Amino acid sequence: MDSLKEKIRTEGRVISGGILKVDSFLNHEIDPFLMKDVAKEFAKRFRQDKITKVLTVEASGIAVGIMTAYELGVPMIFAKKKKPSTMDGTFITKKVFSFTKNTEYDIIISSEYIEKEDNVLIVDDFLALGNAALALGEIVKDAGAKVAGIGIVIEKGFQNGGKLLRESGYRVESLATIKSLDSGVVEFL
Ligand code: 5GP
Asked: CB of 127 closer than 6 A to ligand 1?
């Protein structure tokens, strides 16, 4: 996606440790026009797959998720990182190791929002080691539903997540894949 790559090139900042900061359009301030283009692209790639729900994880996945769900005409669910007191009934929870925060956290979803008949598209802002997407995939499988695929806005191709997910049998569609962030320069695949 050229508009996304251009935005990364002009506004992305490389932080040490292989992290790309894109707070000006994806992770803090959010560019709704770019999000619309991102969502249209995901919808185009997955329209034939009869998606029934879009699943992501809070907080950075929500903007991507809701726009994609809107384009596909289906609901969006986001996994929460803390169990709210209002969440009753049964729920599914998984542990995720965070690459950026170097710590483990739980994600949780109320069982009532994923049914056996669902064909779920997982989306997220970044793919690094693949832990977040894998945990979301396991949640869908635990619910007895199907993962149609995984849509990623920015895949860091120099990390193992993409390989891991594809080898696990998931269809992964990334809109921009970064080959390297060496010397502070973004190089696309
Ligand atoms: P993974 O689970 O694939 O290791 O990491 C994915 C999650 O970590 C994403 O949801 C994203 O929030 C965060 N993340 C991973 N790498 C980066 C990065 O380079 N920049 C930013 N802004 N977030 C990242």
From this structure: yes
CA–centroid distance, 85 to ligand 1, in Å, is 28
CA of 10 to the centre of ligand 1 (A): 20
Q: What is the pTM of this model?
A: 0.97
Tens digit of pLDDT for each residue in 65-100? 999 999 999 999 999 998 877 878 899 999 999 888
pLDDT tens by residue, 92-143: 999 999 888 889 999 999 999 999 999 999 999 999 999 999 999 999 999 9
SS (H, E, C) the chain: CHHHHHHHHHHCEEECCCEEECHHHHHCCCCHHHHHHHHHHHHHHHHHHCCCEEEEECCCHHHHHHHHHHHHCCCEEEEECCCCCCCCCCEEEEEEEECCCCEEEEEEEEHHHCCCCCEEEEEEEEECCCHHHHHHHHHHHHCCCEEEEEEEEEEECCCCHHHHHHHCCCCEEEEEEEEECHHHCCEEC
